[in-house]
Amino acid sequence: MAGRSVTLRALSILDAFDVRHRRLNLTEIARRSNLPLATAHRHVQELVDWHALERRADGTYQIGTRLWHLGLLSAMHVELREAALPYLQDLCAVTGDTVHLAVRDGFKALYVERLGGVRSVRVVSRPGGTLPLHATAVGKALLAWAPADEQRAALSRLERLTPYTVVDPTRLAAQLAEIRRTEVAWTREEMTLGAASVAVGVTGAAGSVVAAVGLVIPSHRTNVGSGLPALRAAASAISAHLRSRRSAGAA
Amino acid sequence: MAGRSVTLRALSILDAFDVRHRRLNLTEIARRSNLPLATAHRHVQELVDWHALERRADGTYQIGTRLWHLGLLSAMHVELREAALPYLQDLCAVTGDTVHLAVRDGFKALYVERLGGVRSVRVVSRPGGTLPLHATAVGKALLAWAPADEQRAALSRLERLTPYTVVDPTRLAAQLAEIRRTEVAWTREEMTLGAASVAVGVTGAAGSVVAAVGLVIPSHRTNVGSGLPALRAAASAISAHLRSRRSAGAA
DNA sequence: TTTGCGCCTTCCATCTTCCGGAAGCCCTTC
DNA sequence: GAAGGGCTTCCGGAAGATGGAAGGCGCAAA
Questions:
Q1: CA–C1' span, B7 to C14, in Å?
Q2: Cα–Cα dist A71/B190, whole Å
Q3: I want to staple A214 with a disulfide (CB 3.0 to 4.6 A). Which of A62, A100, A235, B55 is the partner?
């Protein structure tokens, strides 16, 4: 394959895997990574030897323990998720709702963590997954404090997801201004029918908004704002935690 | 470097990172992965381009978002952690203690998840980290149901960690038998002074013990067994969940 | 039993690509 | 202004990657 270095070829094999393709056989890997079968075979072998991939009894491959292990060393995980987790859990325990922690990844909200007891609302998000910025509360919060040019770009590509999704750029811009003023973002059935959400921003060591924490609640509930004080408290506790660490070392 | 394929060299760069070396500069990476600086430089460049690594403002490198993302596709994460998480959270909320989910990784207990509110006991474990099998409750539970030969091997290498660590193979073997009988594992200050722990096994789709769930509690607490019913309930709920899925697809 | 098929594995002659010492750059420190 | 640490670039020689082809294996249909 022209222009791809050896390493890139090996990495493109890993790229063949995603949420909807967690298990692939060799032929599928070769096809999805655009490599001849023999070449894919050789690379896959090496990746398996290194435990980047695992081979299952049925012959399919999946991401291995070693990569999971490595991924836990990423800044996103260690510096954000681990710092936030205790507060998120308390928030979850206090409110009983599904709790989200997300960061902005281009025009998407990337879900870093999702907590929710056995009885919480079922939601579409999953850790490592993404959802649109404009239709979720965490997304709106992240967008409200995003750089102006990125905000403008996001406003020009509003996709309708439910009858209640805000797809008018002017209206969303007004909402974002309101979010900056009140420091709370809301949605109501804009992503999923039956679900409402609230979110507030988390500020990092530098004082800018680096993440958002949100609650998802059934939209029929009347006291939608009841979790807000706890949410604000959690977000500012996480912000304080991030501020106090700056550049800490290992665990 | 003799005998290492290109891919393996690139992977050995990733291997330079671990819990105590989350951020490395180029020189350190080259040294730790045993590669000439120029070679390391080339590989690191490619890994950064692919977002396997990230370069920070101060010039150091760390594991990037892409690997974190990929790791979340591993079976360990999707099939075990995600299935167990809601139950673990409930368990954490009910007991107020630190909750652990671990699997056996050779002679170590590999911590897949750790939950604990802001007020829980500080513990030495971390997700993705390992602790000895013989000095932790989850470890003992995993060891109790391990294959006989591995169990024997583990018994021959008991390291003392506190004055209370059980290092006599005969005594530990008796404890393991007791654990299989009662289906509960205990420790008391065997890993960390001041901490006790309880754990029970989780059975997978095939009916064998694949993981263990445990609680860590301050050892001065008198009602050490008070969390046991909730712990048992959580473990059997997770086991049931795993049994009912067998080979489910995506989220 | 034979044939066909899908999938995996191995082989090896060819040639693309990687290797890494050396030299140069850019800071900071003395 | 010289020394030193760390990073980046270069390029000829050497090494290792490539991938078409052929063979193996298990299964199902004829």
A1: 21
A2: 30
A3: A100
